[in-house]
Design goal:
Layout: H1 2-16, H2 35-48, E1 53-65, E2 68-79, E3 82-93, E4 99-107
Antiparallel strand pairs: 1-2, 2-3, 3-4
Amino acid sequence: MRKIIIALGVFTTVNSAPTHIPTVEHSQPEIPAYAKWGKLAIKETQSKYPNANIVDYLHEGSESIKDSTIEKFKLWLKDGDNEFGVFVRIEYTTATEKVVTIKLEETSR
C-alpha cells in the first residue's frame, strides 16, 4: 500500500508540472536608420585621417531642414599619443538620400 501511495504522489507531481517549456527566440538586432550614414562618416574620417584609429563613435541625432536631413556624428580618434574628436555632419536630400555636403570639424573634447 505504501508503494502505491508513493507512486501516486510521484505521478501527481509529475503530471502537475507545466508541460509547456517556453522557447527563447534570438532575433537579429534592428539596424538603426542612421547606420548607412554612420558608415559614410567613418569612411570620410578615415580618408581625411588615414594614420589615426577611430576609437569611439557616437550618433548625436539628426535634424530636418526643409527638404534636407543632417545626420550628426562625433568620432574619437587616436593618432599616436594625440587624441581628438571629429564632428561629422552629413547633409542629404531627404526624398532621394543624395548627399549634399559632408563637413568634418576637429575638436579637442
